[in-house]
Design a protein that fits this description.
Layout lengths: L1 E3 L2 E4 L12 H25 L8 E5 L2 H8 L16 H7 L3 E5 L8 H4 L4 H11 L5
Parallel strand pairs: 3-4
Antiparallel strand pairs: 1-2
Length: 133
Amino acid sequence: MFKLLAAPISWCSKKRLVVSLSTYKAEHIAGSFVACQAIWLDSLLTELRIKLKKPIKLFVDNKFAIDLAKNPVSHERSKHIETKFHFLKEQVNKSVIKVVYCPTESRVIDVMTKAAKIERFEKLRKALGVVAF
């Protein structure tokens, strides 16, 4: 989900075509797709003469995936990730994207993709700015 001035402007949830055997690889691959989308949105907003603060923050709840994105050296554990998914790492190194840790409990987007108890659902819904009438 992308937010501009605290308001959601875009979101996407879809089944990925790539299979991963670990959560950090799945997060890294998803982060690469998100980085592409973020850069596209940045260019669109630039055309509309709306400047964004750089770097663009990408919130991730997997600390190893964050380390993988931040470390410019190839990890032994990352050698099985296809080269095209290292786009996130390139953007982090260029300071276009900043990967930030976000605890799972604070992930607002989970309200759209995961089942939750009513209390958590209402809390996340409120954090999104959606109110019940």
